[in-house]
Amino acid sequence: MKRINILSEDTANKIAAGEVVERPASVVKELVENSIDANAQNIVIEIEEGGTALIRIIDDGDGIYKDDIAKAFLPHATSKIKESEDIFNISTLGFRGEALPSIASVAKVNLKSKEKDQDLGYEVTIEGNNFTEVTECGVNKGTILEVRDLFFNVPARKKFLKSVSKEASVINDIITRLALANPKISFKLYNNQKKVLHTFGNGELKDVIRTIYGKVITDNIIYFSETSDLITVYGYIGKEEIARGSRNNQSIFVNKRYIKNKALTVAVEQAFKSFSTVNKFPFFILYIEVYPEYVDVNIHPTKAEVKFNDERMLFKKIFGAVHTSLKNEVFETFAIKEENDNTYTPPTFEEITFKIKEEEEKVKLLNSSVKTMIEEGKDLKVNNNDHNIVTYSSNTIQPKINHIDNMPKIDVIIPVDLKSNSIEEVTVLKESIENPYNVDNNNEPLQEDEIATVETQNIKPEPIAKFPALSIIGQYNKTYILGEYDGTLYMIDQHAAHEKILFEKYLKEIEMGTIIIQPLMVPSIIDLSIDDYSYYEENKDVFKAAGFLLEEFGGNSLSLKEVPYFLGRLNPKDLFLDILDNLKNLGNGKTIEVKHNAIATKACKAAIKANDKLDINEMVKLIEDLRYIDDPFHCPHGRPVIIKFTSTDIDKKFRRIV
User: Fold this and answer.
1) Shortest CA distance to 205 belongs to which of 194, 193, 213?
2) Residue 100 contacts by C-beta under 8 Å, 6 or more apart in sequence?
3) Are residues 266 and 301 in the same domain?
4) Which residues contact residue 144 at a Cβ distance below 8 angstroms, ignoring those fewer than 6 apart?
5) Residue 586's domain is classified under what CATH number?
6) Are residue 347 and residue 393 in the same domain, yes or no?
7) Is the pTM of this model over 0.90?
8) Please, is 104 exposed, middle or buried when counting C-beta atoms within 10 Å of its C-beta (0-12, 13-18, 19+)?
9) Residue 560 near residue 548, CB atoms below 8 Å
């Protein structure tokens, strides 16, 4: 075993900084929380280059006593607690005394502070734990703290930071959460001298919500509350009109401290789903007020997780408050009176825990699929034993193969509407089974040198069918298309099939820059939150390449003027927000190709849906298009598009064979 060494103070501080100061947003959070604990009524936050070049926090709080200014940067120096027992009764946001020394060990820090009754303020500068003398300076009541060149002496840490816009976005998110938790404090946030947020500190929570999220969200939220002797829960739950595809618009606060808790999130979402028909995440802001001794905030370095004394009781209270509020909203809307107001049963702790695990499993299952293998048959065989089967075809149906003049001809047998007495007989072309795809004038395969010549001349070879031509039987449950080939029954999910056709088409158009743009007669104005706007700025080139023309409309608003042509009757505003949520869910560091894939996936909402009735021409055309795409067997989400049942499978079901 090697000898044990005592780490130097500088090394120990840098290690501690690794837990407390992960990125510029961590610095902003710690310093603003200090300002809140100092009873500040106005807090100004200025950042440059995503917080790496400059973070300046200005407040009008109590200030720091002259003799404590240098002491504040010593490890575990704090004014929040004195004894170990105080940890179990914490009423402030900070208490460990780790933030300032950790920040000072990895940045160049200048602090100026003045107490209310003092004539002058005092200033100190720290660079890499090297202190200057405390000197007098002119400053207003409160504290000004500047952090420059973050991680200047830890280049490895700086290398792992995200882009400037992303780091600024995370800071925006932190400040919005702190503003929601403290409506009586005025917050101003400047990013590279541009004001991006200003709350007024008038104590009105709805005014803060409107400033951060805009008018549309503020007009579609419902207040809820529940109070007992030990705990109070209250907040706002959004209607399904403002539900989104990501959880970014969800906030939980415990005694004004922003936390993350999956169980509490599920409790709100379960109550929301009782009254919702959309498969999205609700907007909500949840406040929990509890006696400090009933909650432990000292279980995580960033204090983002807490532990409650009685979680089961809290789950039931949150579910009940949200459920009752939504139920009353429904009754008011439709003027319905309920005989029993207690018809719901709050979920148990075990049920909520199971729900969390279930959602985590869904994420894993989303990336896996069962690939359907379809074998080519020898001949097209059609059974005509049903008196409702008639001969039919259309001149618009043409297999996509070369030199069709030499192909044999057959009649295709398919069902018609029972209400119709008409019968059509049309001849269509059958593909050559022996050589169904690339054929030349002599019905022989193209040689390698001929293929090379075609590619050199920039002539695209004909696409290859990935499964044989099917005899269409009809539509089942207005959701699945039934087809037959060589004694095998095929079921095709019509929505998944059309979705994948549009997906591949749109993705290729994005990659090749050949998207057809459709101007909107009336531009659609989209109001974004600060966080959403920062994501848009980070991905504006991706949206442009995908055919969306957006212009700034003041503040965090955008004017949508042009959209991809194929979107048809879709709501362009809703689609834009869905795509934005999808990009958020991708995480950081994804390539342009992956982002284009996300846009194409969401844009496939233009596909036909389940319960859409299709006529025979539409079904034949859809299946024919599906045969020639790159991967017809899986939808963009990984689910199977085609499932087949052999005659043996069906005979076994009827016990005709063992």
Assistant:
1) 213
2) 30, 34, 72, 73, 77, 109
3) yes
4) 56, 57, 58, 111, 112, 113
5) 3.30.1370.100
6) no
7) no
8) buried
9) yes
Pairing of strands 121-127, 186-191: unpaired
Same domain, 471 and 538: no
- Note the pLDDT tens digit of each residue in 607-645: 777 778 888 888 999 999 899 888 889 888 778 999 988
Residue 291 belongs to a domain:
yes
- State which amino acid sits at residue 636: P
Segments of the chain with pLDDT less than 50: 18, 81-82, 86, 335-341, 363, 366-456
d(CA 193, CA 13): 32
Alpha-carbon 446 to chain mean position: 47
Q: Is residue 126 part of a domain?
A: yes
CATH number at residue 247: 3.30.230.10
Adjacent-strand bridge partners of 296: 307
**How far is Cα 327 from Cα 349, in angstroms, rounded to an integer?**
22
Domain identity same for 168 and 115? yes
CA angle at 252 for the pair 249 and 257, rounded to the nearest 5°: 125
CATH number, domain containing residue 631: 3.30.1540.20
CB atoms within 10 A of CB 483: 24
Structure tokens at 515: 């998207």
SS3 548: coil
Tell me which DSSP letter residue 395 carries.
T
In a domain, residue 377? The reply is: no
Name the residue range of residue 438's domain: 389-496+611-653
Question: Helices 164-181 and 530-538: crossing angle, nearest 10°?
Answer: 170
How many angstroms separate the CA atoms of 79 and 81, rounded? 6
Q: Is residue 225 part of a domain?
A: yes
In angstroms, the Cα distances linking 610 to 70, 131, 601 are 68, 69, 17
- Per-residue pLDDT tens digits for 524-541: 888 887 778 878 888 888
